[in-house]
Specification:
The chain is α/β, with parallel strands linked by helices. The protein contains 17 helices and 15 strands. Helix 1 packs across helix 6 and helix 6 crosses helix 7.
């Protein structure tokens, strides 16, 4: 069954995480995504992450990070630094719906592959530029990676152990959150621009997306704490900035996360703990009061929770509608019966390892289910296929390009 975007052609000139993540989302939705890589080595992410091992425990030459960002695509290896390579990209862009790129601001203009140049070739093209700081502003020329944007967006200032406690200080979120967040915003923007083109204007447009902007917007519910009150949000460890109790607690055997969402839930939570008096104590009766008096409340809750196992507490809390869950490692994640039921771990065929485990897309469409038929492509795996089928080139023409190292 074709995907809901099987009519859309995407040219993905991006590298590493943010752009490829957006391209993979579109591929999951059924779009035909061409991944453009340099003939010498390809995407830098092919050398990032943990080496992938096949069924025989031998390294396949692929990496975990590359495999996580590039399923569903076809790879073409083209040297865009050479005029003949630039011509190939222009010809592919002429019959594409979307182009994604994350080169430094202004770099593609040198090759005649910028938005202005390609929109002249294809006025319907949605051209999405993903950069660290955007296409304008005093930082627009600067490079940047995820930790820079976690730091500059304010995210690191609220992530980590609070001041005065052992190990205090700002921490990175444990994955490349700025990249992935920007990838999601890019996907949303591309879908919106396609809708406007097809339903309103008939024309493509340029999307200017900055990782700094995207990460700042993503933390806006915490930034609003500052904008609304003038008080600076602080690091809270595994606790919430805005709700209490909403944090990790130690149990008799292991920690669990508990999230109490309103005052009624707190009353039920307190009753389960055997401390119904806490819910009638005026200091703790409201969420605002619990936050303001958390230094008094949290130790009392912690003392109660240490008396039983995590499983016992999670069962008791589930019975009264209070959210809780274990702090899983990834082995426990993939063994979880809910994760298994939702089929979040899939396997797809791979030419180097036989099969490849992947994390499934979380979206479930009723009529156009996501397929997992195309493995993350080998470097240049589809170069000849694409030049032959998309650009109607002969084998002799392709051989000549390969001899000149224009393609691989």
């Amino acid at each position: 069954m074709p995907g809901l975007m099987s009519h859309v052609r995407v040219l993905d000139l991006s590298r590493v995480f943010a752009g490829p993540w957006a391209g993979q989302m579109l591929a999951d939705f059924g779009a035909d995504v061409i991944k453009v890589e340099h003939p010498a080595g390809g995407d830098d992410v092919r050398r990032m992450g943990v080496p992938h091992r096949g069924a025989d425990d031998r390294e396949t030459g692929e990496t975990s990070s590359y495999l996580a960002m590039n399923r569903g695509k076809r790879s073409i290896a083209v040297d865009i630094g050479k005029p003949a390579g630039q011509d190939l990209i222009r010809r592919l862009a002429a019959e594409s719906d979307v182009l994604i790129e994350n080169f430094k601001t202004g770099n593609l203009q040198r090759y005649g592959l910028d938005h202005a140049s390609l929109s002249a070739v294809n006025p319907r093209l949605i051209y999405c530029s993903i950069t660290g700081f955007g296409q304008s502003g005093p930082y627009s020329h600067l490079p940047g990676y995820d930790p820079v944007f976690q730091a500059m967006s304010g995210l690191m200032s609220i992530t980590g152990v609070p001041d005065g406690e052992p190990g205090a200080g700002p921490n990175l979120v444990g994955y490349s959150v700025s990249d992935i967040t920007a990838g999601y915003y890019a996907t949303i923007a591309i879908l919106a621009a396609l809708n406007h083109r097809d339903q309103v204007s008939g024309k493509g447009q340029h999307i200017d997306l900055a990782l700094l902007d995207a990460q700042l917007h993503a933390v806006s519910h915490i930034a609003m704490n500052y904008l609304a009150s003038g008080r600076m949000p602080a690091r809270a460890g595994a606790a919430s900035q805005i709700t209490c109790p909403w944090q990790a607690f130690a149990c008799a055997d292991q920690p669990i996360m508990i999230a109490v969402g309103n005052d009624q839930q707190f009353a039920r939570f307190a009753a389960v703990l055997g401390r119904p008096d806490l819910a009638t104590d005026q200091r703790f009766a409201t969420n605002r009061g619990r936050i303001e008096n958390s230094r008094a409340l949290i130790p009392m809750l912690a003392d109660c929770l240490k008396t039983r196992t995590a499983n016992a507490w999670m069962t008791a809390l589930a019975d009264v509608g209070v959210a809780s869950g274990p702090i899983n490692d990834f082995g426990q994640v993939f063994a979880d019966p809910q994760v298994s039921h939702r089929a979040m771990l899939r396997e797809i065929a791979h030419p180097k390892s036989g099969t490849l485990p992947i994390v499934a897309n979380p979206i479930r469409f009723s009529d156009t289910p996501i397929g997992y038929d195309r493995h993350p492509p080998l470097h240049g795996e589809h170069t000849r296929e694409l030049l032959r089928d998309r650009l109607s080139m002969s084998e002799e023409e392709i051989d000549a390009l390969a001899r000149d190292r224009i393609v691989a």
